[in-house]
Specification:
By secondary structure, this protein is α/β, with parallel strands linked by helices. 33% of the residues lie in helices and 26% in strands. The protein has 2 domains: 2-158, Rossmann fold; 187-306, Elongation Factor Tu (Ef-tu), domain 3. It has helices spanning 29-45, 58-62, 74-83, 96-100, 103-114, 136-146, 165-173, 177-184, 200-203, 287-306; strands spanning 2-5, 18-21, 49-55, 88-93, 119-123, 149-153, 157-158, 161-162, 189-193, 209-211, 222-230, 233-242, 253-258, 269-280. The protein is elongated, with a radius of gyration of 22 Å. Keywords: ATP-binding, FAD, Flavoprotein, FMN, Kinase, Multifunctional enzyme, Nucleotide-binding, Nucleotidyltransferase, Transferase.
Length: 307
Amino acid sequence: MHVIHGHKHVLQEHRGASVAIGNFDGVHRGHRALIREAKTEARAKRVPSAVMVFEPHPREFFHPNEVQFRLTTLKRKLAIFEKLGLDLVFVEPFDAELAALTAEAFIERVLVAGLGASHVVIGYDFYFGHKRGGNPELMVRAGEELGFGVTVMPPMAEDGEVFSSTAVRLRLAQGDVKSVTRMLGEPWRVSGRIIGGAKRGTSMGFPTANLPMPKGTTLGHGIYAVRARLDGVAHDAAAYLGTRPTFDDGQPVLEVFLFDFNGDIYGREIEIEFVDFIRGDRRFRSVEELVAQMEADIAQAKAVLSD
């Protein structure tokens, strides 16, 4: 898979692709439907399959002082795109120049002159160009006039709920990671470098790996059954996200207890997959009561992960 940064740097061999366009935050099942359609058209036309994403996310560009909760980093998106078998990824810098383009100019300069797109796949709710002046109907008309195909994908839903990045964030805020797995097609995950902590877990017999959460994360507080990946090896684990009300610390942190693991992991990169929610956060009357509950939480997490 080739990653091309910007429409002004597209080699001739990468022109003519069938391109799915969007932010793809979370790369949920609705996004994956767009990607499948782009790949189908690519096979039919014998051209490369591709996606175009915008970096940074347009919300971050227009609201730089607001903390945005991104479900997936660009690095994670690229890993998913490669797993889905795409040939190309166009990472389009979202800057003042791009934001100023009218919808018509975006089509003519970016999609036609820049990418030479043979087919474009967009969602039913895709708006683009200066002040979101472009919509799917405009894209279809432009394709007819300028000679590229357009597919507008309808909403994808299950049990009456439309798959969307907003819906995923809402479920995460509720701690409903099982529903998130269903929406994404795989567990939601975070990754980062393990940092040191107060070592209270160690003193209670549960040494934890502490991980700073991505900025703006609104994951529900509590205990989760998770899988932790170190150097590509998965380890069953239980994770706590919260403010440690028993100790009145106040700052949210993700603490991960790996089962049957004794290695030194401080400073190493770790990836956490959220499998199921065990219980919400609460204050305990004593450390002894907390330890007893932790033992019960771990037993429940082990049962969940063994299924």
